[in-house]
Amino acid sequence: MRTIVHLSDLHFGRTEASLYEPLLAAVGAAKPDLVVVSGDLTQRARVWQFRQAHAFLERLTAPILVVPGNHDVPLDNPILRAFAPWTRYRRWISEDLEPSYEDDELVVAGLNTVTPRAWQRGRIKERQVAHLCAIFERSGDADRTRVVVGHHPFAQSPDDVRKAPTRGARSALARLAACGADIFLTGHLHAWHASPSDHAVVAVPDVLLVQAGTGLSDRLRDEVNSFNLLRVSPRTVAVERIEHVALERVFRAAQRETFSRGASGWTRSVSQ
Predict the structure, then answer these.
(1) Burial of 44 (0-12, 13-18, 19+ CB in 10 A)
(2) With 70 as the cut, is the pLDDT of residue 199 above it?
């Protein structure tokens, strides 16, 4: 079994500083094999915000996989935004915009869903899908769980209509599922979600769609600050929403969903 901590939408520049230590303590207590951050590390992609995000990530002791979000493209410098939008991100966070991670049980592939011209809505290109499929196909062992990490969601519920759907997401979801992807970890909506995909969208075995809320930001959307904790085995995944309890100043498990994988994909087996 592998343990994944899934953080998202930290938004340094619009954070609650009192949450830093409780969040770091909760992540450390989980003893994760991997920490995934699905974008929006900053609020306006300013240098001081990236410095804060860098300092926070440096305090995480587990391996880290990070992808950018739409807020990580600078708004204060139109020339930089147009011609070198990832200069600050690469300087302070990672040179690799689409990193990957592998061990005996996991294959995790990052996807940069942000484009400067479609920064809010996001876009997934054919060549990106082909790249991720190549990673999964050469990973060999079918028992290893294959995870896609991106900022923009691949599918949205009716409650999420305030955000335009990601361009290319529907076809990318189907193609990635067909080439072996099992779990999709995303953010952007500042709302928690975990469910199998809809057969109407993915005409192959269901994949598991997991969204994280915002870990540190004060930009809340009808939910308290939270992150996800995934316990991943070859045939089961437990997804816990770990949310901030203000009166106690701690992050604590608030909801748990367990999914089992069969011939038709993932099905929900337990809800708590």
Answers:
(1) middle
(2) no
Q: Which residue from 99, 20, 89, 101 is spatially nearest to 62, judged by alpha carbons?
A: 101
Rounded to the nearest integer, the mean pLDDT of the chain is 91
Tokens describing residue 240: 């816990």
Among the listed residues 20, 229, 2, 16, the one whose alpha carbon sits nearest the alpha carbon of residue 105: 2
Average pLDDT over residues 154-173: 77
The residue count for the chain: 272
Q: Quick check: 196 pLDDT over 80? A: yes
User: Residue 166, Cα to own-chain centre: how many angstroms?
Assistant: 15
pLDDT at 221: 83
Rounded Cα–Cα distance for residues 87 and 185 (Å): 25
Average pLDDT over residues 181-209: 84
- Tell me how far CA of residue 135 lies from CA of 86, 129, 179, in angstroms: 23, 10, 10
Cβ within 8 Å of residue 84, ≥6 positions away: none
Residues 2-271, CATH architecture: 4-Layer Sandwich (3.60)
CA distance 71 to 131: 24
List, for residues 34-73, the tens digit of each pLDDT value. Answer: 999 999 999 999 999 999 999 999 999 999 999 999 999 9
Residue type, position 255, single letter = Q
What DSSP assignment string belongs to 251-272? EEEEEEEEEEEETTEEEEEEE-
Tell which residue, 65, 21, 81, 38, has the closest CA to residue 185.
Answer: 38
Q: What angle do CA 41, 39, 4 make, to 5 degrees?
A: 105
* pLDDT band, residue 79 (cuts 50/70/90): confident
CA distance 175 to 131: 12
